[in-house]
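Sample intake sheet
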Amino acid sequence: MQQNAKGLGIRWAYLVLGVVAMLFAGIIYAWSILKAPFQAEFGWSAPDLALNFTLTMCFFCTGGFVGGLLSKRIGVKLPLIAGGLLAGVGLLLASRLEGSSVGMLYLSYGVMAGLGIGVAYNILMTVLGAWFPDKKGLCSGILLMGFGASALVLGNLAGAFIDNPAIGWRTTFLLLGAGLAAVMVVAGLVLRMPNPDTQFPQPKQGKGGDSQQSEQRDYTTGEMLRRPSFWLAFVCLLLLAAVGNSVISFAKDLALSVQATAALATTLVGVLSVCNGLGRIITGALFDAIGRRATMLCTNVLTIVAAGVTLLSVSIGSLPLCVVGLCLTGLSYGSCPTVSAAFIGAFYGAKYYPTNFAIMNFNLMGASLMATVSSNLLASSGGYTLPFMLLLALSVVALVLNLLIRRP
């Protein structure tokens, strides 16, 4: 009984530490702010800087897979510390860059920071998820809210530091690297997996007979990849995330196109980020309360409504509808990573969760590619109607796939 009480008490402290660590890990999503000094000081082109973010996401996904493999072989402590140090050193090297070669930016930020944060992200999700088998969705949602809020919290703070002549971008990157490394080292030293004999409350029965309690067994990564349920969910979540990725990439310009002031457009980008964070924790709570199937359907329908409302707003030039559409998009987009994390645990078990979850996260690469397609469509058409028709179609296709998902 002492082990049970300790397990139930310490896990909430672990979760708080995990949120702080995820807040620092999410700094990679503040690239739209962090890239500004490189363009201003070195004159590097927008495509060059956009490629760095693409590389970052690719190595982030790869790092997640590496973290999953390492955690199974050597435990969670060393990979988490190593990932944090690698990412921290990457940001430190980025602070010393000169304008001679953009390749060093790709190596320091894209490869090192992206890979290290990917490793740390996977470990944090794995460790904290193991402490909350009865609240998988809520735990994932809270952690991912911290990850998603980083661009708003640390990103804006970093932007203020960069614009401050007394600090500048080099010191800002130095502080970010040191802070990230320090937090991950502390997390690595403190966090641990629960003992096998720790007993937790039983998961609540979700409505519709789709509760976490109905897990059949643990599936290896190879077994998971042979299940149609995985690929249906993978593509479904890829398409839903593509909608959010696309809107985030041109949210400010979208608001300006319906006569928002520059100040309001900037504010709406922040509101979108807040809704993104709220969507993560709300979806996590829903997953635990009403089950996987109902939660995924809610997420999908919300994405369809968000795309439809935003399409209508640009068609008739309505700023109020655009505001509603952006808020709904933030909520729906925030739901995707939470659903991904909880879905893998609920369908394929806890034993191989680190590598299974890392494989699911590769849908981020596909979502980024679809966002690039919609951005190119915007550039070629000169308006937002065609891009949002595409996004609406993607969300409808996702709904069809969603309805086909069955337990393995």
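Comment: Confidence is low (pLDDT under 50) at residues 211-215. Residues 2-190 form a domain with the Growth Hormone; Chain: A; fold (CATH 1.20.1250.20).
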